[in-house]
Amino acid sequence: MSIESYVLKLQQEKNPGIIEKLVLEFLSGLSWLYGKGVNKRRIKAQKQAVKVSVPVISVGNITAGGTGKTPCIMKLVQILKHMGKHPAILTRGYRGKLEKVGGIVSDWDKILLSAQLAGDEPYMMAMKIPHTPVLVGKHRTASAQNAINMGADILLLDDGFQYWKLKRDIDIVLIDCTNPFGGEHLLPRGLLRENLECMQRADIFILTKTEQVDSQIKDKIISRIKQWNNQAFIIKSEQKPAGVVTYENWKKNIPIFLENIENRKAFLVSGIGNPSSFQTTSEMAGFIITGSINFPDHHCYVNTDIEKVTQMAIDSGADIILTTEKDAVKMMPISAIPLYILKIEMNFSGCGETVIKNLITSLK
User: Any binding-site annotation on 67?
Assistant: First the structure.
């Protein structure tokens, strides 16, 4: 078990033993230091924050791990294009080879970089959202100016809630209903990236994965949000399976309808922030799950990984291996058993889309 896996398991332990309690106390000390560091960086960055000539919409979260930022970004691009806007996406490109120096993953016409250079999520967005520039680099103020020079008239700042060097016009914060407040502790004791008072900065909260919890839990989450911020809009969203594609057809963007694969036995493989959510969505699609393997977030697959996954899938009695689109950009063909990709999309409930459109319309 990796250190990361051990800590995640320990964070969720309800009855820790003596040794576990000592480890948690140590992690609490690290969390205190982490919190002090975050506050210091935020104050410094906000004093130096840059305002650019076009509106900036930040999409971020308060916890580490997968909350649904990428599906949300893609949904917002769809909305903006329907409104006649020309958006560009600014993202860090975590673990991509151009993370430090920056680069243009795609322009208005084509993809310009590989997944290894761009990073898995930026490359996936470039594939799924054609004719929309995607720019990577930790210096997103520089990316913003490059995007404006390319003709973008509105910018989407991916994972931007803790990026304070670029001023934004709308701050959207995603709250994962399956783990909304990160165990109530800062990293590494819990999953919070900032203290909960940071929610006062948000303009919109989007509850994600609402389909995976009951109404009572959702109501409690909303009440908790309002304790910190009763001015922001709160929107509910759902992440649902949108299609299933063979690895080969996924590269060609050829869909296969969900009903064609219902009740097939699937072995799950993923390297994402919230693998349990992937399993739930896979079950919603109609798959029978025979087993799974979870790699660290942003994992880069090598031949030995594929060999291990293939053997585990066969031993479990699976008909297919099922993975995410984020993983697929770093996968390689598997010959012994079919490899499928589950496509997921986000939809806003009620008048959520109207609220977002009205706020965008009000921007100058």
Answer: yes
